[in-house]
């Protein structure tokens, strides 16, 4: 319940039980309805009060100022304005995200690996030319390995056996006729062990 003194008598401007709240990023408006009726003006309707809380980053203490009493033909209300820093929207963080920091660490580590590896091979082992690349055998095959992996994922028909006839699949070969007859006619182990 919000009250105000009008002469000697307190006047109810609005009740907490009939409150409306609206807001945006840097302001919040509390509208209190259900106050005492006007005695002579505003068609003797109920009083209502709007309390507008606005962003003021310099204001640590809450101070409420009466702006005006508006008497419009359609509506009458009192408007109060209060500025405080707690109403302000949070400022966006100005910094790098976790993913950016991770990528920077990976890039710096990669560059340090190549730089220190280059100097080690050059100064300690006396490498010249292309021999100065650390683990060059691995790095020369990385492109082919990536292409094979991409081919296996994107072109499964060539790598999974989908485009071949069933008899030419590498994982299974039918038993030849001669070997099958030999297995039936002779001892099983001796046919498998013979050249």
TrEMBL record:
GO terms for cellular component: endosome; trans-Golgi network. The keyword Transmembrane applies. One of its GO terms (biological process) is protein targeting to lysosome. One of its GO terms (molecular function) is protein domain specific binding. It comes from the Eukaryota. Gene3D superfamilies: Mannose-6-phosphate receptor binding domain (2.70.130.10). It holds the Pfam family Man-6-P_recep. The chain crosses the membrane at residues 101-121. PANTHER family: CATION-DEPENDENT MANNOSE-6-PHOSPHATE RECEPTOR, MANNOSE-6-PHOSPHATE RECEPTOR FAMILY MEMBER. This is Cation-dependent mannose-6-phosphate receptor. It comes from Penaeus vannamei.
